[in-house]
Structure formats: structure tokens, C-alpha cells
Amino acid sequence: MTSDHQNLFGQTAVVTGASSGIGRAIAVELAAVGANILVHARANRDGTEQVCREIQSLGRETCFELLDLASQQAQDDLVERAFRWQDIDIWINNAGADVLTGEASGWSFEKKLELLWNVDVTATIRLSRQVGALMQKRGHGVILNMGWDQADTGMAGDSGEMFAATKGAIMAFTQSLAKSLAPTVRVNCLAPGWIRTSWGEAASSYWQDRGQQESLLERWGTPEDVAQMARFLVSPSAEFITGQTIRVDGGRR
Fold first, then answer.
1. What pLDDT sits at residue 11?
2. Which end of the chain has less Cβ packing within 10 Å, N or C?
3. Are 164 and 151 in contact (CB under 8 A)?
């Protein structure tokens, strides 16, 4: 049962990268406690429309935008369209480039890193700065970014190096932006661990075992685990929390 202090009735949120996985779970979780939601995705129209139907079934207003956030023009367009739709109270930068599955999995390290930097880092920074300035003018707002629980400790291998560099940058940026926008706008960062998204579901037995063994709670997390923490951090219950990175990983061994 959600307390009144975590209700988001009358508020509007933008969730980027919300057609599936963690983003979808966050969008639905916030809608379930009263928020209207703009659902963003790069290209997955079917998934995005399904998420919008879920939100509508909860009695909330919703719309969606399909934009590739690797483009700075698309980043600017998303902010403009979002604030034209409704005044935005909550902005969640969840979108991240997928370099682990599909065509991108076969790319060179350099090409993967370039895409990750454009989508995960540059887009998060540019969107946050634009949105933060608009929220400051209105006198309130919350921004939530997405890091990684191993960014500050490291993980061997190409993926570990790429994600530590990009997600670590977001985590550091979050701390500075929180200072820039205080006391009007709160800015925090989530750092998920092993979460069973589509990659986790299809991962080899090595990764399945590793994800379980590295958690003190001896299981993979779910997108809903992350979404529940996101709901708390953007709610009035967390009104004295800013500039923080919160790990959602079941405790790392």
C-alpha cells in the first residue's frame, strides 16, 4: 500500500527509454501512484504503445515520443515537446544505448563507446541541464539519472570498461548538477546491479550464476525493484534527498 506521501497525483513525469525493461517498469509504477507519463523510446513503437495502454488503464494521461537521443536535435525536440504537452515535474533519464545485443554487439570497442557516450552521457547531461533550468523557473522539480553499481569499483573486460566510464560520468555529473540546481530542484541517481531485463533473461549460465552469486540476497533484481526505488526518490517522501547515488543491487559481495 503506497502512503499518501508517495502519491504523485497531479504530477507529470517523463521517462526516457521506457518501451521495455526498467523504463517501462518505472513508467507504470509512477502511473500507478497518480502521475501522468510521457513515454519516450528510440524506435520501438509497439512496445511504447503497449506501455501507454497500461498507463491509460490506470486512469492516467499519457503520450509518447519516438526520438533517437544520440542526436542533439532529438534531445532538444524531446524537451520542447514534453513541456508543450504538460508542465513537467519529474524527469527520469533512463534511456541507454544497447551495445550488448543485436547488431551493435558485433561492433568495435570504439564504436560502442561512441554510441554509449552520445546516448548515456551527453543526452543525460544536455537533457538534465535544459530540464533543470525550466524546473528552476517554475520553482520545483525532480531529476533522476541512471548509473551502475560497479562504476566506482570496476569490472574487468570491454563491457566493464565502457560502462564504468559512461555510468561513472553520469554519477559524478549528478552530484554537481544537484549543487547547481539546489535548493529548487532535486537530482539523484539510481545505480542498478544485475537486473533481469531482456539481456539478463537471455544471458548464458555463467552470467546467470554470476549475477546471483554477487548479490547478498542471492538473486537477480527485477525491473520492478528499480521502479519502486525510483518512485520513492521522486516522491515527497524523499524531499530531503538530493545529490545521491542509490544502489539497487541486493547488496554486493
1. 97
2. N
3. yes
Tens of pLDDT, residues 25-67: 999 999 999 999 999 999 999 999 999 999 999 999 999 999 9
Number of folded domains in the chain? Answer: 1
Q: Quick one: which of 238, 218, 220 has its CA closest to 22?
A: 220
In a domain, residue 1? The reply is no
- The answer on pLDDT for 174 being more than 80 is yes
120 CB-near residues (< 8 Å, 6+ apart)? 95, 96, 97, 146, 166, 167, 170
Which residue is it, cell 541507454?
Answer: 96
Whether residue 123 lies inside any domain: the answer is yes
What would you measure as the largest C-alpha separation in the chain, in angstroms? Answer: 50
Domain region containing 187: 7-248
| Sequence-separated (6 or more) residues with CB below 8 Å from residue 178 | 186, 187, 188, 242, 243
Q: Angle 21-32/45-57 helices, nearest 10 degrees? A: 20
Whether residue 236 has a cis bond before it, omega within 30° of 0:
no
Distance CA 28, CA 231 (A): 10
CATH of the domain at 85: 3.40.50.720
For strand 62-66 and strand 90-93, is the pairing parallel, antiparallel, or unpaired?
unpaired
Which residues contact residue 7 at a Cβ distance below 8 angstroms, ignoring those fewer than 6 apart? 33, 34, 235
What is the distance between the alpha carbons of residues 100 and 17, in angstroms, rounded to a whole number? 16
pLDDT, the chain, mean: 93
Residue 69 · residue 119 · CB < 8 Å:
yes
Classify the phi-psi angles of 218: left when phi > 0, otherwise alpha if psi is within -120 to 50, otherwise beta.
left
Task: Name the residue type at position 111.
Answer: K
